[in-house]
Amino acid sequence: MSFGLVTIGPQSVTAREPIQLDACDAEVVMVVDGRGVSWPVRLPNGAVPFDSMIETTPRGEMVRL
């Protein structure tokens, strides 16, 4: 499953569209000018449709794609 993001910060991301997720492990992937990076995160509170900001905590190191 993948979801579009409009902002990526050090402790949160903002979803493009409302989503609902239970607390889970996830991966953030960012591609700029054809260069990508990804990093594993935990969504400790999941995501709810009425709040587009999703709290994240790191689970590992950033990797270049």
What is the structure about, briefly put?
The protein is mainly β and 65 residues long. 0% of the residues lie in helices and 51% in strands.
How far apart the termini lie comes to 19 Å
Rounded Rg? 11 Å
Query: What's the β-strand tally?
Result: 7
Number of helices: 0
Helix-strand topology string: EEEEEEE
Question: Structural class, judged by helices and strands?
Answer: mainly beta
Q: What does this entry look like structurally?
A:
The protein has no helices and seven strands. The protein is globular, with a radius of gyration of 11 Å. Strands 3, 4, 6 and 7 form a four-stranded antiparallel beta sheet that branches. Strands 1-2-5 form a three-stranded antiparallel beta sheet, with no helix packed on it. The protein has 65 residues and is mostly beta strands. The mean pLDDT is 96. The chain has one domain.
